[in-house]
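Contributing new records

If you add data, match the layout below exactly. Sequence lines come first and carry their own label; structure lines follow with theirs. Keep one chain per record. Anything else will be rejected by the validation script.
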Amino acid sequence: MSLFSVCVFCGARSGKNPAFESAADAMGRAIAAENWRLVYGAGDVGLMGVVARSAQTAGAQTFGVIPEHLMKWEVGKRDLSQFIVTENMHERKKVMFMNSDAVVVLPGGAGSLDEFFEVLTWRQLELHARPIILVNTDGYWGPLVDLLQHVVDQGFAGASMLDFVTVVDTVEDAVLRLREAARAPAVE
């Protein structure tokens, strides 16, 4: 039986709020404590590096995927359980997603938003039914949640789109949702 795999999208920077690094650390440790596998962007910088080092230190399997052009910029973390170098960003996202059972989005920038919207769009198009969990650390994703509601209110998406994203305030709440997903039969 394969390990339940959690894809974590998060920043290649740490951000200004120390709570962001704390959440990344807690997410990595939680993944290990639950005997799950971390799937992420294979960087050793910012929140990516924090979540990976925390997961590794606590004994989790780690699966990292990085495009060749980001090896230096994101400091490709070669000591992972599995380390894959792709040709481009599109392939990176596909490989990460195809090797995961659920998606967690921690604070991040444009790259994290790109990853989030891609998996949300795929869900909207019924290409998958994996959970997408947005960890709203210290309200970081509040404007995004408001934007999603605005998109629905303005008629550019049905209200069901909001059901595709679970917004939680803490890593602990994310873990509770992930436990439910890990127990549920795979749907795909």
